[in-house]
């Protein structure tokens, strides 16, 4: 019996819509990362991009536990002297709410070229509407443990 290994051109990709309203940030990001990688499919192969397209709506209504709203910071450095920037979760939520989910999901994908390719299939929107109606996305129900 030979082991089946799917080729990238044989993979069928679906479009899934995930509603982030009232969901916990880390649990939602882990579930979305699994959908992007294709781990929910029986033909999952780690070195092949066999995941689906994921559209996340209501990103501004994501929940975090504890005091993370004020105590969690996103840090970056430009590489130049004095180029260190720090921003709290509350400030980033006001300025750019989609970046919260994008950064959480990106951290859960492989840090390789394959992970970069899988990340391009993620579409995040702050409100309840999205421009991907032509792709006929299916509503994806998350497991019960993802809610706050």
How would you describe the overall organization of this protein?
There is one protein chain. The mean pLDDT is 94. Strands 5-2-1-6 form a 4-stranded parallel β-sheet, covered by helices on one side. The protein is built from 5 helices and 6 strands; from the N terminus they run E-H-E-H-E-E-H-H-H-E-E. Helix 1 packs across helix 4. It has a single domain, classed as Ribosomal Protein L13p, Chain: A (Alpha-Beta Complex). The chain is α/β, with parallel strands linked by helices. 28% of the residues lie in helices and 17% in strands. It is globular, with a radius of gyration of 17 Å.
Query: Could you describe the largest sheet, including whether it forms a barrel?
Result: 4 strands, parallel
Query: Which class do the helix and strand fractions yield?
Result: alpha/beta
Strand order of the largest sheet: 5-2-1-6
Tell me the span between the first and last alpha carbons: 45 Å
Helical fraction equals 25-40%
Please tell me the CATH architecture by its name: Alpha-Beta Complex
Based on the model shown, name its key terms.
148 residues, Ribosomal Protein L13p, Chain: A
Topology overview:
Layout: E1 15-19, H1 25-37, E2 53-57, H2 68-71, E3 73-77, E4 84-88, H3 89-95, H4 98-108, H5 113-119, E5 122-124, E6 138-139
Parallel strand pairs: 1-2, 1-6, 2-5
Antiparallel strand pairs: 3-4
């Amino acid at each position: 019996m030979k082991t089946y290994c799917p080729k990238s051109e044989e993979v069928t990709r679906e479009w899934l819509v995930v509603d982030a309203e009232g969901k916990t940030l880390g649990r939602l990001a882990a579930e979305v990362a699994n959908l992007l990688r294709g781990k929910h499919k029986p033909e999952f192969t780690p070195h092949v991009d066999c995941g689906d397209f994921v559209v996340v709506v209501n990103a501004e209504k994501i929940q975090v536990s504890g005091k993370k709203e004020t105590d969690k910071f996103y840090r970056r450095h430009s590489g130049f002297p004095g180029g260190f920037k720090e921003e709290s979760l509350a400030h980033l939520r006001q300025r750019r709410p989609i970046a919260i989910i994008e950064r959480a999901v990106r951290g859960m994908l492989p840090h390789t070229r394959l992970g970069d390719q899988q990340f391009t299939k993620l579409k995040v929107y702050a409100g309840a509407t999205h421009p991907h109606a032509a792709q006929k996305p299916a509503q994806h129900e998350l497991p019960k443990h993802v809610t706050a």
